[in-house]
Amino acid sequence: MGSKFSLEDLFTLTLATIFVVQVLPQARAALFTDPSTLPNHKEYDYIIVGAGPSGSVLASRLTEEARTNVLLIEAGPNDAGQLSLEVPFLASQLQPNMQFDWNYTTVPQAGLGGRTVPYSRGRVLGGSTNFMIYTRGSKDDFDNYAALTGDDGWSWDALQPYFSKLENLVPPVDGHDTSGEILPKIHGTSGPLKISLPGAPLPSNSRVIQATQELRSEFPFNVDMSSGDPLGIGWSSGTFGGGARVSASVAYLQPVLGRRNLDILVNTTVTKLIQTGTKDGQPVFRRVLFAQSGSAPIFALKARIEVILAAGAINTPQLLMLSGIGPVQVLRSLGIKPILDLPDVGQHLADHPLVTNQFGVAQSSDDIIDNISRNATFASALLEQWLIERQGIMTLDGQTQIGWLRIPTNDSAFNGAPDPSAGRLSPHYELFVVPGFMSSRGTPAPTTGFFNTFLTALVTPTSRGSVTLASVDPFATPIVDPNFLSTPFDIAAMRFAVRSAVRFASAPAWRGFLTGPAAGFAEVDTDDDDSVDAWVRAQASTIFHPVSTARMGKCGDARGAVVNPDLTVKGARGLRIVDASVLPLIPAAHPQAAIYVFAERAADLIKSRTGSYK
Ligand SMILES: Cc1cc2nc3c(=O)[nH]c(=O)nc-3n(C[C@H](O)[C@H](O)[C@H](O)COP(=O)(O)OP(=O)(O)OC[C@H]3O[C@@H](n4cnc5c(N)ncnc54)[C@H](O)[C@@H]3O)c2cc1C
Ligand SMILES: *[C@@H]1O[C@H](CO)[C@@H](O)[C@H](O)[C@H]1NC(C)=O
Ligand SMILES: *[C@@H]1O[C@H](CO)[C@@H](O)[C@H](O)[C@H]1NC(C)=O
Ligand SMILES: *[C@@H]1O[C@H](CO)[C@@H](O)[C@H](O)[C@H]1NC(C)=O
Ligand SMILES: *[C@@H]1O[C@H](CO)[C@@H](O)[C@H](O)[C@H]1NC(C)=O
Ligand SMILES: *[C@@H]1O[C@H](CO)[C@@H](O)[C@H](O)[C@H]1NC(C)=O
């Protein structure tokens, strides 16, 4: 969550001043960049579409069995040697509309006063280039998944072995004593995905902790939000280790590139799934078509066992619809021949709306981010520090502590609306502080003044949107409509969250540090519902957590869900979906942990050749 200095300027400056320029790893073997160079006559048991967290976990786990051959196809390029993907602080420079992004934009959002908002999705080996925040979420959310799907294997307790299997908790890069900041024994320590606490201090750290003591009843301290009970405010862990981003590619693919039974094809988009037969009256989809661009040659390959879609919550429903799998009416209106009527494909899209609330700070040293964006010498020195010793602010994404909070049951948000949370351990909203000016609206940072931004996100939204096709061209952008803030609960809950940020900022701990609401937020009358609501609608955008567009439901009837509890597609053969689209409901957390843990269990389900749900 950094600032908007120019990457190019920064690199030029840094590389000019730095004495030793590190040689970044070069492109590695076992990676194909051109489909025509794939080994002839090689047969693949599984073809996996998309190399984000889900596709990377599957490619790695399935090829642990030497006899299983896997082809992983990724639309974006190789991630190797890309400094912007390695330096955590540069996360904010990666999107929207940047090199490793699909560059999507939502349709106009009525709940946001008709604005459109950029809708980033990563397009590179490793998937969505996120802010690395790793939050397991609430026990109640997972137990609800088990209840909704009728499969106890998706419950919190049943998934614990998979959390342990995927995580590798490593010390923070500055080696500071973490006692009182985390409970190490509840984390895995031997998995592929490095996780650590932030390894550089921010000026707001001690004040956040002090405020949790001063306002304990509303903002209690939570020593480890990974316990299944995330409620309260505490230190946030992230998918970084040794000061560098640990993407799904770094964690799961790079270590297994030498496997002869795994081929990875980058720069190549899967454009369609092809029906290869019929079994027990159900269409079998084992063939994929792929191409490097709309004008390049089209290739076809057939999987011996299964095609697994892991293209993410936007592209998975897009690819299903392009292949004749989805709501029949929609397919017909586009001139696509329906093969399988699944009305829920592309539906139930849920995402977390985000609003930034700015406060002034008394001293420039309390605002690191604006100094970095205003002072290229300072930014360059920090990057140099990262390059030489992997230390400092560049090892952070811009935040170090997060709060997960519930709205009290007597609040008017619940007038006429049932509590949408999965239970009393699931938060309704998230609150955290960043030491600088940030704007969910995309407002450029002021050139004078110093800020801290209090971010609020609604994590139990009741608004639902959709993904659909604009065109039958697989290289065309799909229509993304998150339908943000379209329910009375969502606006009332965001209103509560903004006021909660003001209450948190009024703790004695912030005296002499914060100077009060600033920039646009200074104009808001926080006692007045209409004034807060207008602020929320004018400022909100997203924290980029779309899910549920091919959601999992109980076995059987294909109404209400797209996949079975074993992630096989309802009414089809040879086809599974493993990615953010299958989550039955949006987690009240940053979702990558849930997505990783789902993929880990999915790998075991696939290895044990389940797939008999009908
Ligand atoms: C800007 C941003 C910040 C975020 N911050 C956080 C965070 O801090 N913490 C957190 O928990 N979550 C965060 N997220 C969300 C998180 O990154 C995603 O939920 C997660 O990556 C989803 O994993 P996935 O495997 O479903 O899909 P993705 O990660 O989106 O991966 C899908 C992959 O499939 C590829 N693909 C798509 N279509 C095709 C096709 N037709 N052919 C071939 N390949 C294809 C894509 O290029 C992509 O690489 C963030 C997301 C964004 C965009
Ligand atoms: C892969 O695609 C990227 C852009 O996405 C391009 O810069 C690069 O040259 C391509 N690589 C190959 C080997 O085609
Ligand atoms: C997104 O925009 C950036 C910047 O213009 C560009 O480099 C990138 O290739 C675009 N992505 C796609 C999928 O076109
Ligand atoms: C931040 O900016 C202020 C104002 O320009 C300056 O006084 C201060 O020294 C800067 N701090 C750093 C670390 O560059
Ligand atoms: C810019 O940063 C450098 C290095 O930290 C510092 O010496 C200088 O005073 C800063 N300039 C301003 C205007 O803050
Ligand atoms: C809800 O209850 C709390 C504690 O009893 C009280 O302080 C608060 O004012 C109540 N809120 C509303 C909206 O009634």
Give the tags.
614 residues, alpha/beta, Glucose Oxidase, domain 3, eight-stranded mixed sheet, 14 helices, 24% helix, globular, binds flavin-adenine dinucleotide, binds 2-acetamido-2-deoxy-beta-D-glucopyranose, GMC_OxRdtase_N, flavoprotein, GMC_OxRtase_C, FAD, flavin adenine dinucleotide binding
How are the SSEs ordered, and which strands pair?
Elements: H1 7-17, E1 31-32, E2 44-49, H2 53-62, E3 70-73, H3 83-86, E4 104-105, E5 118-119, H4 139-149, H5 156-166, E6 167-169, E7 193-195, H6 205-214, E8 232-235, E9 240-241, E10 244-245, H7 248-253, E11 262-265, E12 269-279, E13 282-291, E14 299-309, H8 312-322, E15 325-326, H9 328-333, E16 340-341, E17 353-361, H10 368-374, H11 376-389, E18 401-405, E19 429-434, E20 451-458, E21 466-468, E22 479-481, H12 488-505, E23 514-517, H13 529-539, E24 541-542, E25 575-577, H14 592-607
Parallel strand pairs: 1-11, 2-3, 2-14, 3-11, 6-7, 14-25, 15-16
Antiparallel strand pairs: 4-5, 8-18, 9-10, 12-13, 13-14, 17-20, 17-23, 17-24, 18-19, 19-20, 21-22
Helix pairs in contact: 1-11, 2-14, 5-14, 10-11, 12-13
The chain binds flavin-adenine dinucleotide and 2-acetamido-2-deoxy-beta-D-glucopyranose (NAG) (5 copies).
Summarize the structure.
This is Pyranose dehydrogenase 1. By secondary structure, the protein is α/β, with parallel strands linked by helices.
